[in-house]
Amino acid sequence: MDGEFHRIRRLPPYLFAEVNAMKARARAAGQDIIDLGMGNPDMPTPPHIVEKMIEAVQNPRTHRYSSSRGIGGLRRAIAAYYGRRFGVDVDPETETIVTLGSKEGLANLAQAITAPGDVILVPNPSYPIHTFGFIIAGASIRHLPVGPDHDFMESLERAVRHSVPTPSAIVLNYPANPTTEVVDLDFYGAIIDFCRGHGIYVVSDLAYAEIYFDGNPPPSILQVPGAKDIAVEFTSLSKTYSMPGWRIGFATGNRRLITALARVKSYLDYGAFTPIQVAATAALNGPQDCVEQIRATYRARRDVLVSGLAASGWDVPSPQATMFVWAPIPPVFAEAGSLEFSKLLLQEAKVAVAPGIGFGEYGEGHVRIALVENEQRIRQAVRNTRKFLAASGVNAAAAGRGASKAIAS
User: What CA–CA distance (Å, rounded) separates 137 from 118?
Assistant: First the structure.
């Protein structure tokens, strides 16, 4: 009776907890902490979406139970979005479902399709729910290392060749959290061809589809011919329309997977509050200039942060997408590791970031910096960081060259 429950035993200690506890203590002591750790959008939800929510909530009929699959109007808006944005035809009745954010949808799909001992392929580093949603469901996880030093298809082929039983599903996340990596349709095409040949479902997380800065807009895996035979894709309104607390997202794609998710959800919830779904419909169907404004704000913040860190002697890659910077820690701190570096940055510079090790073993050596403060606060974070780095012996002699390179990229 005193031991931990089975599923709890499979969850490791929360590796962000130490930094979060330090942050809480510092704030309780009156210190001004610039929090770039959690990917929590800070911009206001566009006014026309809020106004639609207010209008809908004043109708008492909307206060009743909703539908766990989502209201018809929102499912049709999702189908229209896929047609408009990706050129993909979606049946709103059978190929899409509304979720309480993509996180809930991913976790419930894992419950729906996973038997104890199933092998699931998950990138590493990755957003924690991609791994732990399936672990909670009883799966065995095989990690696929991602990043510039790894060939993803080679890792995938090796994992399938050496896994017993054959993996039942693979999770993809592009634009990627935390690494910010982007891929093209050729990449997705190769994944679909391979997974179809091995009977592997593909679960794609496209939460950052609209937060991109350079090059072409990120594609959907459902654009690949035949992808809906094996693939389902999750996305969310949290980042696109700055609606994180609203908890509204959707899954689209393979009918069997959508049906399985709907079956589980029917036992667990009655769907999101109807006025939220009505407002989400207005977001998808309404004017989209607000999305460009949100995108432009993140782009400007990215440029301030990346160029400012480069001028401090800390060269970090400029992300093409997402609301994050995935930063290799300065070499002088390599031996300390990402968690200790994050604690030092919080203690000495009053800047909170997320240690890369919290996203998986292959995240070690990096920190994730979220673009969730305004430009003035980001400049302050850069100034504080510059002082900390200088005191730690980081050489900023090449700062001019690094800053120029960062801005050019």
Answer: 10
- Separation in Å, CA 122 to CA 13, 69, 126, 204, 312: 19, 27, 8, 11, 35
pLDDT at 12: 77
E-strand spans in 62-176?
96-99, 119-124, 140-145, 169-173
Domain boundary among 243, 267, 285: 285
The domain boundary, picked from 242, 269, 285, lies at 285
Token duo for residue 76: 């049709």
**From the CB of residue 76, how many other CB atoms can be counted at a distance below 10 Å?**
18
What is the pLDDT at residue 395? 65
50 within some domain: no
234/173 Cα distance (integer angstroms): 10
Here the tokens at position 173 are 């996340």
- Give the pLDDT score at 396: 55
Residue of 217, 235, 11 lying closest to 102 (CA atoms): 235
Q: Do both 319 and 194 map to the same domain? A: no
CA distance 111 to 172: 18
pLDDT tens, residue by residue, 273-325 = 999 999 999 999 999 999 999 999 999 999 999 999 999 999 999 999 999 99
Between strands 231-236 and 201-205, the pairing is parallel
pTM of the predicted model as reported, rounded to 2 decimal places? 0.92
The CATH number of the domain holding residue 296 is 3.90.1150.10
pLDDT tens readout for residues 47-67: 999 999 999 999 999 999 999
In a domain, 51, yes or no: no
Structure tokens at 4: 């931990």
Task: State pLDDT tens for residues 199-220.
Answer: 999 999 999 999 999 878 999 9
Q: Are residues 37 and 95 in the same domain?
A: no
Q: How far apart are the first and last CA of the chain?
A: 57
